[in-house]
Amino acid sequence: MTQIQLRIYYDPSECQVFCNIARKDGTLEKLTATIDTGAAVSLFPRELLDLIAYRPTDDASIIIDQAGIAKQSFQAVEAVITISLEDAAGNLTQPFEITAWFTDTETRLIGFKDVLDQSILHIDMPQRSGWLEIDK
């Protein structure tokens, strides 16, 4: 299992990881994403679709109904991308495919499908340390 150290923040409380997404030109698009244990699927800005290599799923254009107080819905493009996770020390997972949603947002989230559902997440907020153990 690869262990990726997370960037931990106290206020607002969140943890982040670097993502390397395969681009159409063969290079990598590096960005920071927040680990979201409440996100069913990883979420990225739609504008990335102009840069990255992806394969649309059978449900390429979908409507997502959010639960909770907001009870909002939004439209997204669902696609399979190749990603690797990296920490500040340079530890890196092997590239692997995930299903992700792309919508009109600046938010970048790592969710359950294909990532957290295959990982062990350790967070120690008082010590501001955390890591993701992922079998990739």
Q: Would you mind describing this structure in some detail?
A:
- The protein has 136 residues and is mostly beta strands.
- The protein contains no helices and 11 strands.
- It has one domain (2-134): Cathepsin D, subunit A, domain 1.
- The mean pLDDT is 91.
Please report the total strand number as a whole number. 11
The CATH homologous superfamily is termed: Acid Proteases
- The CATH class: Mainly Beta
Strand content: over 45%
Task: Indicate the topology.
Layout lengths: L1 E4 L1 E4 L2 E10 L5 E8 L6 E4 L8 E12 L7 E14 L9 E8 L5 E2 L8 E6 L4 E6 L2
Parallel strand pairs: 4-9, 5-8
Antiparallel strand pairs: 1-11, 2-3, 3-4, 3-7, 6-7, 7-8, 10-11
Describe the structure in brief.
The protein has strands at about 1-5, 5-10, 15-20, 30-35, 40-45, 55-65, 75-85, 95-105, 110, 120-125, 130-135. By secondary structure, it is mainly beta.
Feature tags:
136 residues; mainly beta; Cathepsin D, subunit A, domain 1; 8-stranded mixed β-sheet; 0% helix; globular
